[in-house]
Design a protein that fits this description.
By secondary structure, the chain is mainly beta. The chain is built from no helices and eleven strands.
Length: 120
């Protein structure tokens, strides 16, 4: 069992930036982020390999979001720039053995979620 501890959510104005962090308790092949807006289904955002040499972004997330990993700190980050009100959601860190296929990923472990609110 891998536990994921997220941090970094909050309230930001449109056009601003936030960086989310996620620290796993163990090693997996891939880590990444999903988000779920109120009343909507959870959607995949991005994933990164444990070594950090492979990255995957859902098409609609390309450009403004960057996923990265700091091996020394054992932490995965999601840098979010030029935020829009429609980015408001609970963001979930995830980890798993598999790698994304198409625009889909089915991780094995989930964090508790961190709220990101973008005001207009």
């Amino acid at each position: 069992q891998v536990q994921l501890v997220e941090s970094g959510g909050g309230l930001v104005q449109a056009g601003g930036s936030l960086r989310l962090s996620c620290a796993p308790s163990g090693r997996t092949n891939a880590m990444g982020w999903f988000r779920q807006a109120s009343g909507k289904e959870r959607e995949f955002v991005a994933a990164i390999s444990w070594s950090g040499d492979r990255r995957f972004y859902v098409d609609s997330m390309q450009g403004r979001f960057t996923i990265s990993r700091d091996g020394a700190k054992n932490t995965v980050y999601l840098q979010m720039n030029s935020l829009k009100p429609e980015d408001t959601a609970v963001y979930y860190c995830a980890a798993g053995r598999s790698w994304p296929s198409g625009n889909n990923w089915y991780p094995d472990y989930w964090g508790q979620g961190t709220q990101v609110t973008v005001s207009s």
